C-alpha cells in the first residue's frame, strides 16, 4: 500500500486536516508527504519524485532499471528523471533529453522509460564498467532487444555518450548474475581473451551438476567468482566444497576468483589454465586501458615457449 500523499489533494478530499498534515507527516518534496518517521524505500522515493513532477516527468536511468526489476541498486541513489524543470530538488537528477512516445511506459502507476530506452541511457551516462554491469542486469530481467537500443542510437545521433554505448552494446550478456561477473567478463574481453560464455551447465551424465559463472567450454575451463555469500552462507560453502571437486573430476578446470585478487592475478591464472588446455594464447586487440596487462601476458607466453613449459600449466 502506498504511503505517500499529495498534500493539496489530501486536504481537498478531506482525508487529512491541515493540523494532521503538519503533525503526522514529513514533507519529502514540495506538496509530497510521508507518514512521520517513515523510512522510505527506493520505490517510495521514486513515487515521491514522480509526484513532485506532478506526474509530468518520466523516471529514467538506475531508478527506471529498479522499477523494471534490476537488482544491485542502492536505496539512496538520486532518482533520475527526464523532465523540464530547471532547478531539480535534492535527491532528483533531471535530464532534459528528448524522449519519444514509444520510449515511455507505465510501471506500477509511474511513467518510466522502456527497457530499451533505459539501457540506452545507462550505456551513455554510467561509467563504462558499471554501464555494462547495469545493462547486463537489465537484460537479465527484461530481455530487451539490443537492436532496439541501436535504433535509438540512430534516432539520437550526436547525443552525449554514444561512442561508449556503441562500444559496449555488443558485449551485453544477460547471463551475468552479478556486477562482479560482468566486471570479470569485461576484464577478459578488454585484455583480448576469446569471448567467454556465461552460465555454463556442467553435466554429470544427463544431470546438471552445476551452472558456472563463465568460461570457455571448448577448453573445459570455467571461472567462478566467490562473492560474500560463499563466505557467509554455510550452505553455499558446503555445496562448493562438495561440488567443485566433482566438476574437476569430470575434466573441467575451475579458476576461482575472490574480490581481493588483482586483475593481473586473475588474468595470469586464467591464461596459464587455458594454455594448458590447448588454447594457442593469441590475444585479440586489447582495450587501451588493458594494453599493459595484455603485453605482460604476451611476454609470459614467450617465456613459456622458450622454456618449453607451455603445457600442463594448470594447478
Automatic annotation (TrEMBL):
Source taxon at top rank: Bacteria
Family matches, as SUPFAM superfamilies: Restriction endonuclease-like
Name under which the protein is recorded: DUF559 domain-containing protein
Alphabetized InterPro entries for the sequence: Restrct_endonuc-II-like (IPR011335)
Amino acid at each position: 500500500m502506498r504511503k505517500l500523499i499529495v498534500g493539496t489533494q489530501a486536504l481537498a478530499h478531506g482525508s487529512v486536516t491541515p493540523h494532521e498534515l503538519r503533525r503526522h507527516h514529513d514533507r519529502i518534496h514540495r506538496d509530497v508527504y510521508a507518514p512521520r518517521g517513515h523510512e522510505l524505500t527506493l520505490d517510495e522515493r521514486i513515487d515521491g519524485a514522480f509526484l513532485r513532477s506532478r506526474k509530468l516527468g518520466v523516471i529514467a536511468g538506475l531508478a527506471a532499471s529498479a522499477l523494471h526489476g534490476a537488482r544491485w541498486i542502492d536505496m539512496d541513489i538520486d532518482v533520475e528523471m527526464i523532465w523540464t524543470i530547471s532547478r531539480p530538488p535534492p535527491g532528483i537528477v533531471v535530464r532534459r533529453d528528448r524522449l519519444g512516445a514509444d520510449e515511455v511506459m507505465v510501471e506500477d502507476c509511474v511513467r518510466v522509460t522502456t527497457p530499451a530506452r533505459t539501457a540506452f541511457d545507462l550505456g551513455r551516462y554510467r561509467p563504462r564498467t558499471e554501464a555494462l554491469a547495469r545493462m547486463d542486469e537489465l537484460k537479465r530481467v527484461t530481455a530487451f532487444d539490443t537492436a532496439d537500443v541501436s535504433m535509438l542510437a540512430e534516432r539520437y545521433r550526436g547525443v552525449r555518450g554514444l561512442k561508449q554505448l556503441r562500444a559496449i552494446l555488443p558485449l551485453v550478456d544477460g547471463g551475468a548474475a552479478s556486477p562482479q561477473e560482468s566486471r570479470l567478463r569485461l576484464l577478459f574481453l578488454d585484455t583480448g581473451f576469446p569471448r567467454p560464455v556465461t552460465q555454463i551447465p556442467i553435466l554429470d551424465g544427463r544431470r546438471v551438476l552445476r551452472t558456472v559463472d563463465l568460461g570457455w567450454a571448448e577448453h573445459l575451463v570455467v571461472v567462478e567468482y566467490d562473492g560474500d555469500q560463499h563466505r557467509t552462507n554455510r550452505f553455499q560453502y558446503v555445496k562448493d566444497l562438495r561440488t567443485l571437486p566433482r566438476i574437476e573430476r569430470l575434466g573441467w578446470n575451475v579458476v576461482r576468483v575472490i574480490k581481493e585478487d588483482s586483475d593481473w592475478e586473475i588474468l595470469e591464472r586464467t591464461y596459464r589454465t587455458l594454455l594448458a588446455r590447448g588454447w594457442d594464447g593469441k590475444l585479440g586487440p586489447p582495450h587501451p586501458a588493458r594494453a599493459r596487462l595484455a603485453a605482460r601476458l604476451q611476454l609470459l607466453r614467450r617465456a613459456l615457449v622458450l622454456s618449453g613449459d607451455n603445457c600442463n600449466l594448470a594447478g
